[in-house]
């Protein structure tokens, strides 16, 4: 016997669980289906982000940063700790506990908001009168009927052609987060967000890390000035980053992994490593969705085709997050999930893709929103730029972390903020002010005239805004 709902959400990652909760808040009868399972066989909602992405990686980044501080920086604060050791299994266990707290938190939120949760795999069966039949298989089998369906099935790691993930020698983000010992030599293909974050974790813990990047420029999506500053910092830390490489054959053995590649000079090189992390992007996850049964349209990448409001080609079927176009970011998925729930309820929300922030949680952190200087030049738009270094910020000096800067780009005529780029301490938190300013179409002068607490890192943002008009006060 089937159960009927106003909204059925397939997937409980950031886009899915947020969409389900918001729809329930709006008075709709909601079900959410998710197949993630923890080590004990229980439900583990939260998707890639919570289970093998954003949350566990930040837990390991924090642990490894503490370890590095204890080894190299506590002494300058007058703190003596003697011999410092790392217990990797215990660190991984803490990471797992953090993940479970988030899993349990989502289950609690479902209960609080009266969302009916099904632990299993959701797929289309057929269109029926007034909606769609959805099958739930696995841990909690059921047949559901939904008037509206929101597909939020996320993405999966892209493997190298002909080189499958075994999560022992060839690792995706999943395997990279489950290592039980520090590899002596770690190779990473892809120097993007995941590669840099995972490389930072294991480099801090003692691994010799080499990142191989196919693009000739480092962090091509970031502002060029910020990317150059980041490259200098990572080089100083001991990360080896090779750009413009072409990866060839990858061989595994009992000893490790051998990666053959051609470097930027055209020379043939073989890199020997104990483990290889492949972080060359992600692909939309529609496996097992049975999309063809209802004629759900997908593009050449496998992403579900949607319009600007996340509507698919089928009436009453929506899709959000990594499984559709746009940046594969958890917070982008959340914004889309909320917007779709509100559209189903008859409201008229808006998601501004121009003010979605990007963050890389390395040390120094890197964050940006809006356009880069190279994008503005390519578009022929007249602009002004202002920068302020953390070296001149009192709070950064007190923290002992003065690497980096804040950079603000503003329209040359109107002074409207067009982009903000930060590299330095707490950039992930500082970028929120820039996002808010851009949402309200603030000018650099608006930020410059706003009182910022002293001493604080956020004063660097104020000073960068002053620098747009060439009138910094502390540099």
Strand and helix map with partners:
Blueprint (H helix, E strand, L loop, with lengths): L2 E8 L3 H12 L4 E5 L12 H6 L1 H19 L15 H25 L3 E4 L1 E8 L2 E7 L4 E10 L3 E3 L12 E2 L1 H4 L8 E5 L3 H12 L3 E5 L11 H14 L2 E3 L3 E7 L4 E6 L5 E6 L1 E4 L3 E3 L32 E3 L10 H15 L13 E3 L4 E6 L2 H7 L3 E7 L4 H6 L5 E7 L5 E8 L2 H13 L4 H5 L10 H10 L7
Parallel strand pairs: 1-2, 1-6, 2-3, 6-17, 8-15, 9-10, 9-15, 10-11
Antiparallel strand pairs: 4-5, 5-6, 7-16, 12-13, 13-14, 18-19, 19-22, 20-21, 21-22
Q: Specify the number of helices.
A: 13
CATH topology of the largest domain: FAD/NAD(P)-binding domain
Average pLDDT for all residues:
97
Residue stretches low in confidence (pLDDT < 50, at least 5 long) are none
Number of strands: 22
CATH class designation of the largest domain: Alpha Beta
The CATH homologous superfamily of the largest domain is called FAD/NAD(P)-binding domain
Structural class: alpha/beta
Query: What is the annotated CATH architecture of the largest domain?
Result: 3-Layer(bba) Sandwich
User: Between the first and last Cα atoms, what is the distance in angstroms?
Assistant: 71 Å
As a percent range, the share of strand residues is 25-35%
Count of domain modules: 3
Helix content: 25-40%
- In this structure, how is the largest beta sheet organized? 7 strands, mixed
């Amino acid at each position: 016997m089937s159960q009927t709902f106003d909204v059925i959400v397939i997937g409980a990652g950031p886009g899915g669980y947020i969409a389900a909760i918001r729809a329930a808040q709006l008075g709709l009868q909601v079900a959410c289906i998710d197949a993630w399972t923890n080590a004990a066989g229980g439900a583990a909602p939260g998707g890639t982000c919570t289970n093998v992405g954003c949350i566990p990686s930040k837990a390991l980044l924090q642990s490894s940063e503490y370890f590095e501080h204890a080894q190299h920086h506590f002494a300058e604060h007058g703190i003596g700790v003697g011999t410092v050791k790392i217990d990797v299994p215990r660190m991984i266990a803490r990471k797992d506990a953090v993940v479970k707290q988030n899993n349990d938190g989502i289950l609690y939120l479902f209960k609080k908001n009266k969302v009916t949760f099904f632990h299993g795999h959701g797929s289309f069966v057929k269109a029926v009168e007034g909606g769609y039949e959805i099958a739930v298989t696995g841990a909690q089998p059921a047949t559901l009927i939904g008037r509206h369906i929101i597909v939020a099935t996320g993405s999966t790691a892209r493997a190298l052609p002909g080189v499958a993930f075994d999560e022992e020698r060839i690792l995706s983000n999943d395997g990279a987060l489950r290592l039980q010992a520090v590899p002596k030599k770690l190779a990473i293909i892809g120097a993007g967000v995941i590669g840099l974050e995972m490389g930072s974790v294991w480099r801090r813990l003692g691994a010799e890390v080499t990142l191989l990047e196919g693009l000739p420029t480092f962090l091509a999506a970031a502002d060029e000035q910020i990317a150059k500053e980041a490259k200098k910092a990572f080089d100083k830390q001991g990360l080896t980053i090779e750009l413009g490489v072409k990866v060839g054959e990858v061989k595994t053995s009992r000893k490790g992994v051998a990666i053959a590649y051609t470097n930027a000079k055209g020379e043939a090189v073989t890199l020997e490593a104990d483990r290889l992390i492949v972080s060359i992007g992600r692909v939309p996850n529609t496996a097992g969705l049975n999309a063809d049964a209802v004629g759900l349209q997908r593009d050449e990448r496998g992403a579900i085709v949607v319009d600007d409001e996340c509507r698919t080609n089928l009436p009453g079927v929506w899709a959000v997050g990594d499984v559709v176009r746009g940046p594969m970011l958890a917070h982008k998925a959340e914004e889309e999930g909320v917007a779709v729930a509100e559209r189903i309820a008859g409201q008229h929300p808006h998601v501004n893709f121009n003010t979605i922030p990007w963050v890389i949680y390395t040390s120094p952190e890197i964050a940006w929103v809006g356009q880069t200087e190279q994008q503005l030049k390519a578009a022929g738009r007249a602009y002004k730029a202002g920068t302020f270094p953390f070296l001149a910020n009192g709070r950064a000096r007190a923290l002992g972390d003065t690497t980096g800067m804040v950079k603000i780009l503003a329209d040359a005529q109107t002074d409207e903020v067009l982009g903000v780029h930060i590299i330095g301490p707490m950039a992930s938190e500082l970028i929120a002010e820039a996002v808010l300013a851009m949402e309200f179409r603030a000018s650099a002068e608006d930020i410059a005239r706003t009182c910022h607490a002293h001493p604080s890192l956020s004063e660097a943002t104020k000073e960068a805004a002053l620098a747009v008009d060439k009138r910094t006060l502390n540099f």
